[in-house]
Write a structure and sequence with these properties.
alpha+beta, Fructose-1,6-Bisphosphatase, Chain A, domain 1, D-Maltodextrin-Binding Protein, domain 2, 8-stranded mixed beta sheet, 5-stranded mixed beta sheet, 9 helices, 21% strand, globular, binds 2,5-anhydro-1,6-di-O-phosphono-D-mannitol, binds magnesium ion
Length: 331
């Protein structure tokens, strides 16, 4: 084996050694998330076989009901974290309320918020999907957390990241000291460090990413921004329609991702806590910026678990430009 191969375990242990005060709890938590990612990735890779193996709702050979993949992913993450004694509570895009760790298990200090399988409508057409996670420290007195633990602004995240189930499975995360990407080597079942210290390129690719079919529903400011990018700006356009995949491309190549507000969705579509804030931390740690169009996304004080937010994320200069044009253009 190449002696320079760094598994995610080795990477986390090396990081921990640089922080003598570390208890190892955070390392264990990320390990558990990486394990959940492998289990979800394994099922995602089999998704095309549902017609052979049974569709959601059917019974499998063990007489168990086959779950929808997003429900499966939700259960996997919950079960990877519920019993470890590291977590006080969780919140998932798939659940209405926050989820305290049950009394039968010890509780810890971390709060984990996740979107188990984002972009799941892309599964049927074999397009990349992702898992998004956000980690906070508990701030309430409650041993098993409280709603306020989940309603912290993105700037207080201690770590955040995503797993991309693409042509390979990648886990990308930040704990506030840069962004690091690991690619799953399926032959040994390990995430290997493939993208150390990811930085958004300068100069960035001039590419915007937005669902332009909603053009007529946009504000005048948003319409003018996109017209400017493609006409005077000379931008190209790429839109996968899978948030993790669109942001991953922008992280590697630069560009501007937008999911703006529109007539039908006054706060946009994507969720602040499960989708926007974690990827905003990743993008900012890689040298980019994330905004709601009028303020830093990481400064938004959440008021409810499932609230939505408009998103402008990517290369710093492009996000600045978007904010400026929205401010002057009746945004
Ligand atoms: P989901 O949470 O229902 O999976 O939807 C989220 C997805 C994102 O991955 C993507 O950025 C967005 O929805 C695309 O929405 P649209 O089809 O409106 O462009
Ligand atoms: Mg989602």
């Amino acid at each position: 084996m190449n002696s320079h191969v760094v598994t995610i375990s080795r990477f986390l242990i090396d990081e921990e050694r640089r922080h003598p005060e570390a208890t190892g709890n955070f390392t264990s938590l990320l390990h558990d998330i990486a394990l959940a990612a492998k289990l979800i990735g394994r099922e995602v890779n089999k998704a095309g076989l549902v017609d052979i193996l049974g569709a959601a709702g059917d019974e499998n050979v063990h007489g168990e009901t086959v779950q929808k993949l997003d429900q499966f992913a939700n259960d996997v993450i919950y079960r990877a974290l519920d019993h470890t004694g590291l977590v006080a509570c969780m919140a998932s895009e798939e659940n209405a309320g926050f989820i305290p760790i049950p009394d039968k298990f010890p509780a810890g200090d971390y709060v984990v918020i996740f979107d188990p399988l984002d972009g799941s409508s892309n599964i049927d057409v074999n397009v990349s999907i992702g898992t998004i996670f956000s980690i906070h420290r508990k701030i309430s007195d409650g041993e098993r957390g409280a709603l306020e633990d989940c309603l912290q602004p993105g700037s207080r995240q201690v770590a955040a990241g995503y797993v991309l189930y693409g042509s390979s499975t990648m886990l990308v995360f930040t704990s506030g000291a840069g962004v690091h990407g690991f690619t799953l080597d399926p032959s040994i079942g390990e995430f290997l460090l493939s993208h150390p210290n990811m930085r958004m390129p300068e100069p960035p690719a001039k590419v915007y990413s937005v669902n332009e079919a909603y053009y007529r529903r946009w504000t005048t400011g948003q319409q003018r921004l996109v017209s400017h990018l493609k006409n005077e700006g000379g931008f190209g356009s790429r839109y996968i329609g899978s948030f993790v995949a669109d942001i991953h491309r922008i992280l590697l190549q630069g560009g501007l991702f937008m999911y703006p507000s529109d007539d039908k969705n006054p706060s946009g579509k994507l969720r602040l806590l499960y989708e926007a804030a974690p990827l905003a931390m990743v993008v900012e740690q890689a040298g980019g910026r994330a905004s709601t169009g009028s303020m830093d996304l990481l400064d938004v004080e959440p008021v409810e678990l499932h609230q939505r937010t408009p998103i402008y994320m990517g290369s710093r200069a492009f996000v600045d430009l978007a904010e400026a044009m929205l401010a002057e253009g009746g945004g």
